[in-house]
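Exercise 7. Given the encoded structure of a 626-residue chain, write a plausible sequence.
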């Protein structure tokens, strides 16, 4: 759900939790005795708020076709390179699709805001205060070598991610107090706080690894050896930096579970790597791969005017979705001295003419983002009122006054390219007020001997056309900015070590924000390499608002608390908002079919589409390949 689509790094979240201790003398086992506490479950699934959509006797998710045929292949492109088959550690650049090897205790329903259903776990159980959660594993769960999955694997996976995994995981699960193995198929996670509604569910998102496989290996090191998994696919071929191929596990133990019926229908899934997106697009038209989510508006509007599309060999599809769009932005690294001042950050935003760029480069298709939770009910708007205002009042004097008086809106223009001067004059005024004066000899702004200059680090050349006009406008107000495009591995290393001034960054959001907000914005994460707090935010009010979001007792409280957090983030001008789109742009060779109902909150191609033999025959006939 952030999961943006990769389950591979689907934006999992931090973990707070609580131990329930009964106040009477008893043998050691009876001290926690969760069985005497009133519990919810054992259940087949749980919803964050309210009731889950799918009841105990459901046979499949409605966005999956339980009769989908198996066979064929799905060939996709990836940009850049890879040198590792371990996406769960900080080292190396991992290959695409690695999450296909591994499974989780619970599975997220992609047509609900936040409900989880039993996957490796047959049942989930917890007390009403959600101070712990118990999972009963399915006895049929197996690794690809035939050995059973056990509670030992679950506990080892948790401990390994905490010790050797990305900082993301140690932050996410920081407040799990302990993991108890109750029997070979039963495991209990004990928390150190109560009332955190999402904790039991996000613990269920823990990826599970085989303890016996890793017994003589170092999980913390990169590897190009195909690891052992338990999921629907295993690796069949690896060409480092060029291609990785996954083959469907024919005797996959979970293929008939309700949460997976009609899923993972391709016999083979391939990821081929290209140096940049323009090369990949031409390779797609040449038939080198089959499916392409189009990220560039200009390409979508102009590049597909080719015979294969006109003849129906390639299908262009807009697939609507209900996903929160989060925040795509030019993100400041506030660790840099030139970006310490909120007024400077606010001023520079006036140099980005979104409306002109949107017309020039995207045919007006994008919408400007005004929220960190764009395209959802969680986004703030207007000025705070009612309970939200009451909540924010306790922070008056610690947050910008504009939070109470002004609806946040990024600077706007008519899109003509002419009235940007008005915005630049506003930028000049703010910079002057902040003490950054123009040096008449150099034409650049300085303060206390420091020149106002910075570098914008990019990984995609396609962003240069959006960034260059921004840089030119900055130059007009005495600010020097340079663009640097680097390869994927260098970009990852620099971002993870916070070695940048400004980047283009997307902060994905789910419809049920919670513990992951700590990794995005909390002060504790600002100095931890590899954390998602790339901006370097250290703000005590934001820290408190994050905790309030995490411990929201109801959906209503979650919404108003998230809106309050949104307002404070926006008022501090940590980013220059860019844009969002309310649908997926897909292009594919016409040999696939999909269920009649699309998942509301996901793309669903890898999971629920299938190879259509009849369409493929027609395609081959059109191409003269028979």
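Solution.
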């Amino acid at each position: 759900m952030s999961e943006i689509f990769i389950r591979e790094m689907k934006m999992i979240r931090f973990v707070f939790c609580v131990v329930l201790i009964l106040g009477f003398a008893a043998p050691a086992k009876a001290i926690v005795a969760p069985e005497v506490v009133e519990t919810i479950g054992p259940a087949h699934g749980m919803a964050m708020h309210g009731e889950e959509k799918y009841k105990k006797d459901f046979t499949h998710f409605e966005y999956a076709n339980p009769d989908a045929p198996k066979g064929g292949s799905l060939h996709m492109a990836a940009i850049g390179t890879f040198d590792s088959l371990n996406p769960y550690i900080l080292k190396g650049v991992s290959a695409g699709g690695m999450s296909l090897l591994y499974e989780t205790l619970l599975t997220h329903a992609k047509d609900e805001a936040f409900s989880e259903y039993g996957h490796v776990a047959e049942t989930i159980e917890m007390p009403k205060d959600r101070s712990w959660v118990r999972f009963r594993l399915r006895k049929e769960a197996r690794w690809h070598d035939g050995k059973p999955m056990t509670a030992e694997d679950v506990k080892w996976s948790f401990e390994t991610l905490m010790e050797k995994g990305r900082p993301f995981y140690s932050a996410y699960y920081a407040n799990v107090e302990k993991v108890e193995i109750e029997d070979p198929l039963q495991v209990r996670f004990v928390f150190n706080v109560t009332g955190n509604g999402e904790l039991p569910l996000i613990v269920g998102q823990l990826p599970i690894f085989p303890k016996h496989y890793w017994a003589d290996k170092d999980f913390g090191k990169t590897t190009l050896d195909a690891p052992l998994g338990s999921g629907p696919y295993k690796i069949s071929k690896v060409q480092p930096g060029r291609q990785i191929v996954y083959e469907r596990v024919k005797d996959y133990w979970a293929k008939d579970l309700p949460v997976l019926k009609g899923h993972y229908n391709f016999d083979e899934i391939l990821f081929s790597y290209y140096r940049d997106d323009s090369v990949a697009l031409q390779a797609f038209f040449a038939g080198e791969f089959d499916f392409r989510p189009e990220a560039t508006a200009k390409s979508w509007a102009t590049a597909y005017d080719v015979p294969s599309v006109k003849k129906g060999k390639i299908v262009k599809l807009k697939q609507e979705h209900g996903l929160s769009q989060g925040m795509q932005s030019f993100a400041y690294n506030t660790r840099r001295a030139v970006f310490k001042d909120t007024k400077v950050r606010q001023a520079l935003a006036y140099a980005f003419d979104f409306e002109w760029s949107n017309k020039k480069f995207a045919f007006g298709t994008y919408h400007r983002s005004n929220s960190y939770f764009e395209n959802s009910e969680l986004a703030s708007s207007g000025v705070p009122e009612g309970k939200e205002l009451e909540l924010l009042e306790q922070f008056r004097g610690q947050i910008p006054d504009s939070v109470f008086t002004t609806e946040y809106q990024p600077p706007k223009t008519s899109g003509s390219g002419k009235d940007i001067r008005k915005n630049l004059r506003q930028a000049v005024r703010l910079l002057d007020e902040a003490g950054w004066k123009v040096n008449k000899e150099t034409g650049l702004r300085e303060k206390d001997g420091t020149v106002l200059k910075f570098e914008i680090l990019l990984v995609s050349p396609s962003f240069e056309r959006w960034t260059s006009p921004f840089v030119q406008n900055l130059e007009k107000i005495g600010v020097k900015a340079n663009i640097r495009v680097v390869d994927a591995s260098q970009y990852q290393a620099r971002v993870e070590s916070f070695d940048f001034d400004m980047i283009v960054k997307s902060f994905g959001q789910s419809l049920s924000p919670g513990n992951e907000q700590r990794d995005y914005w909390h002060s504790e994460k600002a100095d931890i390499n590899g954390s998602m707090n790339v901006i370097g935010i250290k703000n005590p009010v934001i820290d408190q608002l994050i905790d309030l979001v995490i411990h929201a007792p109801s959906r209503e409280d979650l919404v108003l608390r998230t809106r309050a957090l949104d307002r404070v983030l926006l008022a501090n001008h940590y980013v220059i908002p860019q844009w969002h789109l309310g649908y997926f742009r897909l292009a594919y060779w016409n040999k696939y079919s999909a269920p009649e109902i699309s998942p509301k909150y996901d793309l669903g191609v890898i999971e629920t589409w299938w190879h259509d033999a009849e369409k493929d025959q027609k395609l081959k006939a059109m191409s003269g390949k028979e």
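Remark. The longest strand covers residues 176-183. Students should compare their own answers with the one above.
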